[in-house]
Amino acid sequence: MEGLLSAVQLHPGLAVAASSLAFRAVHGLLQSLPLPKGVQHDEFRVWKWRNLSVSLVHSLLTGTWAISCVLLWPEMLDNMHSHYTPLSYLLVCISTGYFVQDAGDIILTGHARGSWEFLLHHAMVVWTFLYTLVTRRYVAGAVVALFVEVNSVFLHMRLMLKLAGAQASRLYGLNRLLNLATYVFFRLGAQAFLTWFIVRNYSSLDHAGYFLSTMMLMNLMILIYFGRLLRADFFPQAKAHTAHNGTTNSKKFLSE
């Protein structure tokens, strides 16, 4: 195990490529699973379901892994610039591979135009994570950033339930509340903590300007998404207005 972890740190590019191929293999395996009736006869919904299924696997894996890393090595929170462990480094490699794979899936299946926000997000994550892997700086910060994957579990489940037409179910109602709670704590909270760390230590950090500007753009994006989430799930009037305008069954509906 130690030999494998050492090899990963010596060749992070190969580790990222292997992770990307592994998630593509997961995509292939998940295609054998049955699809909900509401998904089967719509090409876009079939693609979206399978894409979200892989994303859910990634979130379950990396969200749990990130929390475990910090629980086992809490000193990572005190020095997010320089401190890391081999397992936390491997986590960043694996997650980077997923984002590369997902971006490729979006582009190669012809959904780039309708998913440009996701591609922008993926580009920022991949560029930042690759810098982290090459320089071995901010690895702990990347681990904290992956706290958002705890919330992503419920975000992906929410969209999958909508694809299956289960918005009226008790499961959707429970997931809606868990999604809101984890969005505030694990997504907004993690972003706020990372932003605070960079601002507080700005003068002593490598390439602090790049990381701060990236964080501010990410902060803006997640606040916009948060507003959309609140409107879609907690404000019936806005939801009814959307349905009245005939956009309920659109691709946009499936991304909100």
TrEMBL record:
<dbReference type="GO" id="GO:0071709">
    <property type="term" value="P:membrane assembly"/>
</dbReference>
<keyword id="KW-1133">Transmembrane helix</keyword>
<dbReference type="GO" id="GO:0005886">
    <property type="term" value="C:plasma membrane"/>
</dbReference>
<protein>
    <submittedName>
        <fullName>TLC domain containing 1</fullName>
    </submittedName>
</protein>
<dbReference type="GO" id="GO:0007009">
    <property type="term" value="P:plasma membrane organization"/>
</dbReference>
<feature type="transmembrane region" description="Helical">
    <location>
        <begin position="177"/>
        <end position="198"/>
    </location>
</feature>
<dbReference type="Pfam" id="PF03798">
    <property type="entry name" value="TRAM_LAG1_CLN8"/>
</dbReference>
<keyword id="KW-0472">Membrane</keyword>
<dbReference type="GO" id="GO:0097035">
    <property type="term" value="P:regulation of membrane lipid distribution"/>
</dbReference>
<dbReference type="InterPro" id="IPR006634">
    <property type="entry name" value="TLC-dom"/>
</dbReference>
<feature type="domain" description="TLC">
    <location>
        <begin position="44"/>
        <end position="238"/>
    </location>
</feature>
<feature type="transmembrane region" description="Helical">
    <location>
        <begin position="139"/>
        <end position="157"/>
    </location>
</feature>
<feature type="transmembrane region" description="Helical">
    <location>
        <begin position="210"/>
        <end position="230"/>
    </location>
</feature>
<feature type="transmembrane region" description="Helical">
    <location>
        <begin position="51"/>
        <end position="74"/>
    </location>
</feature>
<dbReference type="InterPro" id="IPR050846">
    <property type="entry name" value="TLCD"/>
</dbReference>
<dbReference type="GO" id="GO:0055091">
    <property type="term" value="P:phospholipid homeostasis"/>
</dbReference>
<keyword id="KW-0812">Transmembrane</keyword>
